[in-house]
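User: Could you go from structure to sequence for me? I need the amino acid at each position, not a summary. C-alpha cells:
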C-alpha cells in the first residue's frame, strides 16, 4: 500500500476525531494501520452503545388535573343515572265525564184501576121522591159513591145505608119489618145522607169500600116538620149531638111506606 492509498483509507475511516491533534508528520505504514484499527474499534464501541432515553419528568399538575377530570366525569354520569331512575310524580287520572244522555221526557203512566182509584170511581146520584128511590142500581162496584137529591117539595128525606152480614140470609121484606132500633143494632150502619125538600144532601156522599149486600132506606117520619128534622140531623150548635130523624113527630117512617131497597157491591 502506497502513501496515497493510505491517505484515502484514513479519509474514509475518519480515523481522527475532531478534538485529536493532527500528527506533525505522516505515520509509518504499520503504525498508521494499528492506529486506524484502534480508532475504528473505539468508534464501533461508541456507536453500539445503546442510547437510553432520559426518563421524562413527571408533571404533578397534569396528573392532578387528569384525576379531577375523571372524578368530574363520574359525578356527571351518576347524576344522569339518578335522574333517569327518578319516578315522576303520578299524574292524577283525568276524569272523563260520561257522555250526556238526553233524558227522554217522562211518560206519565196512568195508574192501574183499584178499588179506591178516584179516576175509576163512579158517583151515583140517587133521587128521593114521596115514597121511593130512583136511580139506585141493584149492583155497584167497589169504590163507587152515592149522592142524594130530594125531589119532594114538602117532605124531608134521607138515605140510610146498612151493610148486611155475609151470613145474614133475611129477605128484603123481613128487613123492612124490623124496627129502627133493631136495624141499628143488628146491621152495620155505613152512613146517611139528609136532604131538605127540593135540595141536595148537605153531608156529601157515601163511599162503598167492600163487597157484599147493602140495604138503603128512608128513616124520616111521614109529615115531619123539615126544620125539626134538620135540627136533629144537622144541629146549628156544634156541641149538640145529632139525633136520629125518626124521633121527630110524624107518621110512619119512610121505609115503612116502601121507601127501601137492596143492592150488592162487587169487585171491579
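Assistant: Here is the amino acid at each position, in order:
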Amino acid at each position: 500500500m502506497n502513501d496515497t492509498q493510505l491517505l484515502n483509507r484514513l479519509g474514509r475511516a475518519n480515523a481522527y476525531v475532531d478534538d485529536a491533534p493532527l500528527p506533525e508528520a505522516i505515520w509509518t505504514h504499520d503504525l498508521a494501520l494499528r492506529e486506524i484499527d484502534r480508532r475504528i474499534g473505539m468508534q464501533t464501541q461508541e456507536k453500539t452503545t445503546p442510547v437510553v432515553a432520559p426518563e421524562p419528568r413527571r408533571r404533578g399538575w397534569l396528573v392532578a388535573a387528569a384525576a379531577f377530570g375523571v372524578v368530574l366525569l363520574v359525578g356527571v354520569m351518576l347524576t344522569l343515572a339518578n335522574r333517569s331512575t327518578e319516578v315522576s310524580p303520578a299524574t292524577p287520572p283525568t276524569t272523563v265525564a260520561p257522555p250526556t244522555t238526553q233524558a227522554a221526557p217522562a211518560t206519565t203512566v196512568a195508574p192501574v184501576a183499584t178499588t179506591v182509584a178516584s179516576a175509576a170511581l163512579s158517583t151515583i146520584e140517587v133521587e128521593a121522591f114521596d115514597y121511593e128511590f130512583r136511580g139506585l142500581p141493584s149492583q155497584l162496584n167497589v169504590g163507587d159513591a152515592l149522592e142524594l137529591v130530594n125531589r119532594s117539595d114538602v117532605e124531608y128525606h134521607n138515605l140510610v145505608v146498612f151493610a148486611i152480614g155475609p151470613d145474614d140470609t133475611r129477605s128484603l121484606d123481613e128487613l123492612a119489618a124490623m124496627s129502627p132500633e133493631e136495624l141499628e143494632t143488628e146491621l152495620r150502619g155505613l152512613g146517611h145522607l139528609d136532604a131538605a125538600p127540593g135540595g141536595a144532601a148537605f153531608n156529601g156522599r157515601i163511599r162503598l169500600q167492600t163487597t157484599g149486600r147493602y140495604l138503603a132506606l128512608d128513616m124520616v117520619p111521614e109529615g115531619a116538620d123539615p126544620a125539626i128534622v134538620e135540627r136533629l140531623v144537622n144541629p146549628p150548635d156544634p156541641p149538640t149531638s145529632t139525633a136520629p130523624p125518626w124521633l121527630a113527630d110524624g107518621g110512619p117512617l119512610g121505609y115503612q111506606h116502601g121507601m127501601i131497597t137492596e143492592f150488592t157491591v162487587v169487585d171491579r
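One structural detail worth keeping in mind: The chain has six helices and nine strands.
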